[in-house]
Amino acid sequence: MLLSNVDKLPMKDDSPAITALRWIGRLLPGDYLKTTWYLYCVAKPRKIFRLWLHGFYRMEHIYDVLRFARDTYKGRFTILEFGTNEGYSFTKMLYATRYLGMADRVTVHGFDTFQGMPETRDRRDHNIISGEEEWVKGQFRGDDRKLNQYCSRRYSNFRLHKGKFDETLSQEFLESLRSEKPILVWIDCDYYTSAKTVIERLLPYLPNGCVVYFDEYEFNFGSRFTGESRIVHEVNNGTFGQDIELVFNTQLSLNSKRIYNFVSFEGGIHYELLRPLERDPGRAPTNDSPLP
What we know:
Layout: H1 16-27, H2 31-54, H3 60-72, E1 76-82, H4 88-99, E2 106-112, H5 144-152, E3 158-162, H6 165-168, H7 171-176, E4 180-187, H8 192-202, E5 211-214, H9 227-236, E6 244-248, H10 250-253, E7 259-264
Parallel strand pairs: 1-2, 1-4, 2-3, 4-5
Antiparallel strand pairs: 5-7, 6-7
Helix pairs in contact: 8-9
């Protein structure tokens, strides 16, 4: 039988890196020494470099979102954090608004009972890998008075909402989001049931393009059956309506799956642009090579 051209291709990888590794392997005696050298001199440094270059750090995207809103949209905005706890990320959001000159245009709202995690018997809130509870009643208890005092000495563009989400997300507050549109919704509820309450109430008030961040998305490896990842799955499979979607944002998420843009196809809320869109006139030929 005649071999095809594909069958005649060499099977080995002739890249310079693999060639160099082969030569080094020939110089090292014994498989144990070869393996040890590869794991600690090649694999580990490559992993460290990848994590350094692409690793997700949850504070970075706050600045990206604020810059984009500042340079693109008119009006006043809100950042909504659900699960404020002691205020670690809350104060960093406030400082970001000041640093970027947005403190007069952005109000940061923090929502929490400040009583710690509630008790839950819903299996969608539980760790299904180990079978143990990931969180216990009273965990992540915060001190709202201490946090309020800390923020009041430094910032004025904030508001803390103490209580359960279904109580603090009142109709009056939700209506206020029509004039001060959310640009970032930060969901650190941990429980699926808590995140569901937030999403159900907020969805009619989210503008197209609003960034939604899920701090615990990768709970249970990001299983669609549990936690905050279940919310993304349900939104995108029509549980809350057929014309809405959470679109994965690869640029902001880096090596995670935590950040999405909200989109509503029918009757969505829109931000007001600072200036009209620039229309692309197209491009005339410059050269015929792959170069620009």
